[in-house]
Design brief:
GO terms for molecular function: oxidoreductase activity. With 212 residues, this protein is of the alpha+beta class. It has a single domain, classed as 3-Layer(aba) Sandwich (NADH Oxidase), CATH 3.40.109.10. It has 10 helices and 4 strands. It has a 4-stranded antiparallel sheet with strand order 1-2-4-3, sandwiched between helices. Helix 2 crosses helix 8.
């Protein structure tokens, strides 16, 4: 049977040691990420690696500030609590020695221009865009990055929760690349705990349909 142990090594890690990760190791991980498939081979990704602890902490403060601002718009106390209770999870990256921001570039799905030429309805256009193929490219790269990290003994945590502050984060780091937006982020570091439990997965029978 094929050995797939490398897949099961990946866990969502939220506590890290202060051990430094070398630039060489980071380049190895990003190289692995860029081996992911991408539609039209566009490779519409860009990785920002932040090792400056002060900058990482400042990004966490930006997320905290935006969370507080968003919560202030809510009159419903239950909805406000739902937003604020996740803040501690949205800022766990401040515990890591490295933070990687993954940006996605623009991507025009196959058939989009044809639908425009046809004068397609907004519903038809939205239906074509629904699978977000350009973001799927980023997801594939992120998965490669996380699997490679686990194989090399590092921990990661796929994060999209803090993206309500993506504009503020991008402005803070000064990243400018036409058409690119912050799509995901992950801390990287040596896990404090070796035995990390994953939440249970749905039975394969519940998520699998075989048509023969």
């Amino acid at each position: 049977m094929t050995n797939l142990d490398f897949i099961y090594k990946r866990k969502s890690v939220r506590k890290f040691t202060d051990e430094v990760i070398s630039n060489e190791a980071i380049k190895t991980l990003i190289q692995a990420a860029t081996q992911a498939p991408s539609g039209k081979n566009l490779q519409n990704w860009h990785f920002i690696v932040i090792k400056d602890k002060q900058k990482i902490n400042q990004i966490a403060k930006i997320v905290e500030k935006k969370n507080d601002a968003l919560a202030s718009y809510l009159d419903n106390e239950d909805e406000k609590k739902k937003l604020t209770k996740f803040l501690k999870y949205h800022t766990i990256f401040k515990n890591a020695p490295v933070l990687i921001l993954v940006y996605a570039g623009s991507y025009i799905p196959a058939g989009y221009k044809a639908l425009q030429a046809k004068g397609a309805s907004r519903e038809e256009i939205d239906n074509l865009l629904k699978p977000s193929p350009g973001v799927q490219n980023i997801a594939a790269a992120m998965e490669n990055l996380q699997l490679a990290s686990a194989q090399m003994g590092y921990g990661t945590c796929w994060m999209t929760g803090p993206l309500y502050a993506k504009e503020e984060i991008t402005e803070y780091i000064g990243f400018e690349k036409d058409g690119y937006f912050l799509a995901a982020m992950t801390p990287i570091g040596v896990p404090v705990d070796e035995d990390i439990k994953s939440p249970p997965r749905k039975p394969v029978e519940d998520v699998l349909t075989i048509i023969e």
